[in-house]
Design a protein that fits this description.
Blueprint lengths: L2 H30 L2 H8 L1 H4 L10 H11 L3 E7 L8 E7 L14 E5 L6 E6 L10 H11 L4 H25 L18 H31 L1 H11 L24 H11 L5 E7 L4 E6 L11 E6 L5 E6 L5 H14 L4 H48 L1
Antiparallel strand pairs: 1-2, 1-5, 2-3, 3-4, 5-6, 6-7, 7-8
Helix pairs in contact: 1-5, 1-6, 1-11, 2-5, 6-7, 7-8, 7-10, 7-11
């Protein structure tokens, strides 16, 4: 078997096996580029509040959220980024040292009015469904793990790795003649049937090549983060998360002396007045992990991380994800590129359109295979018929 035939065999079988998965990822990816806009339009009663003066203390909101679901502890708090936004709280089980989360614990998203602490409503995180409450999240979960959990996430990481390798194979197959390389980017006029599908498959795939290769690599970083980070460290050191070096407490601290509002004030003062976007609570480590936005951010998600100790308000860490080694910067670009947010609306629209174009590449690829298979079957049928006639 020649090298080209071996590459064709790989490309054919990878495409057939991965076609359904990649098609699902392409379609859902095109939609969740506009996740926030879709969810806000479907659920204004959860996502929006009337603008008025005053805000409720964050510790009162924490108490209200934990009282709403007995046995829970506030895990993560997303603060309003614009006037009229609600607060989004995530809860987890309140665990004793060494205990495991109960199987029946419900991981809720609880939406709160920031002005008076009133609970607006709740959703179960990751719950499948096509109604207005669950549609946007269901699309997001389909894209992240097919809504099937960690095993599917790992399989999607494997798909991203193989898809990355297939980009090399498809590039080699797309240029059979170096002197006629321009023809590979063209869709010929006046052709139909197999030739039309072949041109669409090859030309669109080549024009999309930089974007789809980026999506494959960044997808690998999001599904296999530890493996990806280890691979990046081969070329450049990375800093890791700000809580990696902290030692667990003897007993989780679910009643910190330092209030949430005080932690926010300390972080914002340290950041020169930048607003805190989100707070992650770590009772096992005795720290708040606060996220802030600043001019170094590549998208609309704050990636300046400030860690504040529960006991005395000491700032244990302050760094930006996009600052540091080349490995840190490379890793920081992965999600903003994958989502298109690195380039604002232009990038988001480009990713959405690329997902639709990739769907066409996948469909034409399967169609090419089906046409060839049908043609081979017809040739085999004619040959068998002639042989039978000769024998007769």
């Amino acid at each position: 078997m020649s090298i080209r035939n071996a590459l064709l065999l790989w490309h054919r079988w990878f495409g057939l096996i991965a076609a359904l998965w990649l098609l699902l990822l392409a379609i859902t990816g095109s939609l969740i580029v506009f996740y926030d806009e879709i969810d806000r339009s479907l659920n204004p009663d959860l996502r929006s509040v009337a603008i008025r003066a005053g805000t409720a203390p964050l510790d009162d909101i924490r108490a209200s959220v934990e009282a709403y679901q007995p046995g829970s502890a506030l895990d993560y708090l997303m603060l309003p980024q614009h006037p009229g936004d609600s607060i989004l709280a995530f809860v987890g089980p309140r665990l004793a040292p060494g205990a495991k989360a109960p199987d029946d614990f419900v991981y809720r998203q609880i939406y709160v009015d920031p002005h008076d602490g009133r609970i607006l409503g709740t959703r179960i995180f990751g719950e499948a469904g096509l109604d207005r409450r669950r549609l946007a999240q269901f699309l997001y979960q389909l894209h992240m793990d097919l809504s099937l959990g960690p095993v599917a996430t790992w399989l999607l990481g494997l798909l991203a790795l193989l898809w990355t390798l297939d980009h090399i194979v498809s590039a080699l197959l797309s240029f059979p003649s170096p002197r006629r390389w321009r023809e590979s980017f063209r869709i010929r006029r006046g052709v139909s049937g197999y030739k039309r599908h072949f041109d669409l498959h090859r030309a669109i795939g080549l024009w999309l090549f930089p974007i789809t290769l980026m999506l494959a690599i960044s997808g690998l970083s999001l599904t296999w983060p530890e493996t990806f980070d280890s691979a990046v460290r081969v070329f450049s050191p990375t800093s890791g998360f700000p809580t990696d070096d902290l030692k667990p407490l003897a007993r989780p601290d679910h009643a910190p002396a330092l209030s949430l509002d005080r932690a926010v004030a300390l972080a914002e003062r340290k950041a020169g007045g930048q607003n805190v976007q989100a707070i992650s609570l770590h009772p096992d480590l005795g720290v708040y992990w606060l996220r802030l936005f600043d001019s170094r951010d590549l998208d609309d998600s704050g990636r300046r991380w400030i860690v504040v100790r529960y006991g005395d308000g000491a700032i244990l860490s302050d760094r930006h994800m996009a600052q540091g080694s080349a490995g840190d910067v490379f890793s920081a670009w992965m999600f903003p590129l994958h989502s298109g947010k690195a380039f604002g609306w232009t990038g988001r629209i480009a990713i959405a359109l690329s997902g639709l174009a990739l769907s066409l590449v996948i469909i034409t690829g399967v169609t090419i295979w089906a046409r060839k298979r049908r043609a081979r079957a017809q040739v085999a049928g004619r040959t068998t018929g002639r042989w039978r006639m000769l024998r007769a």
